[in-house]
Write a sequence for this structure.
């Protein structure tokens, strides 16, 4: 039993009582006692002015927007009135995890310098004139204003300009950094009561029934945790307690000098994620004394709060703020006991045979083609208890499934390591129901039951080598540091082992190897990230066919395979991540987007990339997808947009920075063109894009020549209207909206070949090769008649 002293005892008690109420204290609040950003007050003033323009205080009335959105009363008013320049951010005094703090502690050095310089420049009049031009000129002495003195409208206009400048890329990056952090803090941060004042207005709520049930069911005193028998939480222990705890768990501890404890074991493993956890279980069951070194902390289902800000802070690498060096790609990677498996999205897709064969043949790794590997995969799947059955799908997955069905595409059920009735919706912040079977509740449990020890809050700094007589090097263990809260180094631990395993993930293993003095040029190369491109679709609440909210239910329960390298799936985005990612056009637009948060479905195209990224160092990743990968991403994204449209979205868009989007339902041809245009991300200005859309629309005024061709069906307006009326009538009877009924009835009729006209109409709405004209604008609707293969084929 670990001996705990003074403060530490209080923390443990707090943690224990926290587990009894609403999650672990570390996962409930976002309080930091020290601030290290060191920004000058003048820079803070400029930063505050920027934040205030990004998220401004607005009058609450929202004319012409949010049609059909539920009235929010006071909450909505407070939401619209709130500004990011208010005292909570970026003021470091009242809110420690401020924009400035995150910027300095989480961004790479170059980005910090860049933002630092831009804020300096903006804190002066001359600098503001340089970056904002005429926008900062006033009619009164001294005629030029510094950024923080500019009126809101001018500041907003300046930000809009920076968001688009191609010729001044650094300014655009500085804008992106502040935009991401400011929105993340505004929507993910919580007060002492674990509440964010704006969540109600955007329809977000973390109090879910499952959590309530769990609370009542939780006995007092707290239950023992699955890994208690083997876990040593170094963050909570002083030196003596740490040593006693290690000895108590059967680890040999050698007498040490003041600088370092020395520990001996058979195998030391860095990282407790998917790789490290399985290795620990296998070695421990073979009778070896295993020590797992994990820099993150140990939390269980009882501890998880589902609250975005603090959960990201404690469970993810760099608190979830981790971008590639060019700020084009956001990366998430777990940093807690269980690694990625504790926070991932539960999809457990077996490696396809085509891939294992490729690894075996083309990369000279025969093990992947062996029977042994296939058996190992079976064993892992069995231990994780995979199922692809799902009792109820969440909103986003319903959208994907429905869109696929309407388009005649195949939507596959996704195997997951949780039960078929699992619906918690927040596995990405650690599953609060304990239903998800991550490494922390499976393989690591097996490992500790066979005597393995897990050191948490313990970071491997470097491997230790001895030179053999034949001048080759032999790894003899590693050196690790245990940190106290606040990152103060408490103690070095030297772990001597016959076998050392680096399993700290694709992003953290290379820096560890380099820090250990290894200089093979391949270390850090060939990084594959499986990049994703996202699109969104807004489904107004009155669309009763697809019910629910975007954060509810299993995260990935259905998917569509676009090609053998590209799949379409759905993400888990808390309000902070959502706001950080969606494009910013103006303060009002962003608030309106956020107001629709709960009913905005996201889906992404994920590509098995060919391009090779590079891990430069800790938190430094270079990644640019290859040309083919970009093509695959665009193709996948196009499919995502079609799926969203076909599912009945009222508005769709991507994450391109100028925020171009499409309100529906326009004519299908226009959608096809617009989807293509939406994807032309590289070179066009907004003016060009608007022009191109208009051109396309005008060109479509005339009936196409192909009208005369055989194999086409002419539908008169009356025919269309009567069909639509029937569909709507049927829908009304079933309590649905007419727009979605078109899809549903159409889908039913597609499997019924004699109903050719209706089928064709459905294809006008949903089909890929349709070239229809809106019945409103013309008396003719043109559809290709092609018998659709029966669904599923
Ligand atoms: C949000 C999210 C969603 C995901 N969704 C899915 C999904 O649905 N399906 C899927 O198949 N995959 C998913 N993944 C990916 C999957 O989780 C990872 O591929 C997998 O966890 C990688 O396993 P690993 O053992 O290599 O590393 P990880 O699981 O990342 O484990 C590495 C561990 O090492 C620790 N560590 C790092 N450096 C050190 C150090 N120096 N000292 C001590 N400890 C260290 C880290 O804290 C971490 O706990 C997701 C990942 C994330 C982050």
């Amino acid at each position: 039993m670990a001996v705990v002293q003074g403060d530490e005892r209080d923390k443990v008690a707090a943690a224990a009582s926290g587990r009894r109420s609403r999650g672990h204290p570390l996962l409930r609040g976002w309080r930091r006692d020290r601030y290290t950003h060191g920004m000058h007050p003048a820079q803070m003033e400029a930063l505050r002015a920027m934040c205030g323009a990004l998220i401004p205080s607005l009058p609450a009335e929202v004319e012409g927007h949010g049609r059909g959105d539920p009235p929010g009363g006071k909450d909505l008013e407070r939401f619209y009135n709130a500004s990011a320049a208010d005292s909570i951010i970026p003021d470091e005094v009242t809110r420690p995890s401020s924009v400035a703090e995150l910027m300095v502690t989480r961004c790479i050095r170059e980005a910090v310098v860049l933002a630092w310089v831009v804020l300096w420049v903006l804190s002066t009049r001359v600098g503001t004139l340089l970056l904002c031009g005429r926008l900062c000129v006033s009619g009164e002495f001294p005629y030029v204003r510094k950024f923080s003195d500019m009126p809101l409208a001018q500041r907003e206009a300046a930000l809009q300009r920076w968001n688009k400048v191609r010729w001044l890329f650094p300014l655009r990056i500085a804008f992106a950094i502040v935009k991401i952090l400011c929105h993340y803090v505004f929507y993910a941060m919580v007060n002492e009561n674990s509440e964010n004042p704006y969540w109600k207005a955007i329809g977000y709520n973390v109090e879910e029934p499952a959590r309530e049930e769990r609370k009542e069911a939780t006995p007092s005193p707290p239950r023992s945790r699955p890994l208690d028998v083997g876990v040593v939480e170094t963050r909570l222990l002083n030196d003596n307690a740490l040593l006693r705890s290690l000895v108590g768990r059967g680890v040999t501890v050698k007498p040490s000098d003041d600088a370092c404890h020395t520990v001996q074991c058979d195998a030391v493993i860095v990282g407790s994620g998917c790789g490290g956890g399985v290795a620990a279980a296998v070695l421990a069951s073979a009778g070896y004394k295993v020590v797992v070194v994990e820099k993150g902390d140990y939390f269980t289902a009882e501890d998880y709060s589902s609250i975005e800000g603090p959960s990201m802070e404690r469970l993810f690498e760099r608190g979830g703020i981790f971008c590639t060096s060019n700020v084009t790609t956001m990366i998430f990677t777990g940093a807690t006991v269980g690694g990625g498996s504790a926070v991932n999205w539960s999809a457990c897709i077996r490696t396809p045979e085509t891939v294992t064969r490729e690894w075996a043949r083309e990369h000279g790794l025969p093990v992947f083609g062996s029977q042994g590997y296939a058996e190992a995969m079976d064993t892992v799947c069995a231990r994780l208890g995979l199922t692809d059955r799902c009792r109820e799908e969440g909103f986003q997955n319903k959208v994907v499934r429905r869109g696929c069905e309407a388009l005649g595409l195949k939507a596959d059920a996704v195997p997951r390591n949780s039960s078929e009735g699992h619906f918690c919706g927040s596995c990405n912040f650690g599953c609060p129901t304990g239903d998800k079977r991550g490494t922390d509740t499976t393989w690591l449990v097996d490992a500790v039951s066979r005597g393995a020890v897990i050191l948490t809050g313990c970071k491997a700094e470097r491997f230790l080598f001895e030179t053999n007589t034949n001048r080759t090097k032999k790894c003899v263990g590693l050196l690790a540091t245990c940190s106290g809260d606040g990152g103060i180094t408490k103690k070095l631990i030297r772990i001597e082992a016959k076998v050392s395993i680096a399993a700290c993930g694709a992003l953290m293993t290379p820096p560890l190897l380099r820090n250990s003095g290894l200089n093979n040029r391949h270390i850090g190369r060939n990084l594959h990230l499986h990049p994703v491109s996202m699109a969104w679709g807004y489904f107004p609440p009155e669309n009763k066919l697809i019910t629910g909210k975007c954060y509810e239910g299993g995260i990935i329960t259905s998917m569509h395979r676009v090609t053998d390298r590209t799949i379409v799936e759905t993400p888990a985005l808390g309000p902070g991540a959502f706001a950080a990612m969606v494009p910013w056009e103006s303060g009002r637009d962003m608030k309106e987007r956020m107001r629709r948060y709960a009913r905005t479905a996201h889906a992404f195209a994920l590509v098995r990339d060919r391009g090779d990224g590079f891990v430069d160092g800790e938190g430094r990743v270079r990644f640019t997808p290859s040309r083919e990968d970009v093509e695959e991403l665009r193709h996948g994204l196009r499919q995502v947009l079609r799926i969203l449209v076909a599912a009945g979205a009222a508005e769709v868009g991507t994450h391109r920075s100028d925020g171009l989007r499409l309100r529906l339902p326009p004519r299908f041809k226009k959608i096809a063109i617009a989807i293509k245009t939406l994807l032309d991300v590289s070179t066009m200005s907004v003016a060009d894009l608007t022009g191109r859309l208009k051109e396309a629309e005008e060109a479509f005024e005339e009936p196409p020549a192909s009208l005369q061709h055989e194999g086409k069906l002419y539908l008169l307006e009356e025919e269309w209207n009567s069909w639509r009326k029937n569909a709507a009538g049927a829908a009304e009877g079933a309590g649905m909206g007419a727009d979605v009924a078109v899809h549903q009835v159409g889908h039913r009729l597609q499997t019924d070949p004699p109903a050719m006209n209706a089928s064709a109409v459905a294809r006008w709405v949903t089909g890929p090769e349709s070239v229809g004209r809106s019945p409103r604008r013309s008396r003719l609707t043109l559809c290709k008649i092609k018998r659709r293969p029966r669904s599923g084929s």
Notes: Residues 270-276, 293-296, 332-336, 339-341, 343-347, 428, 459-460, 503-505, 508, 512, 556 surround flavin-adenine dinucleotide (CB under 6 Å). The mean pLDDT is 80.
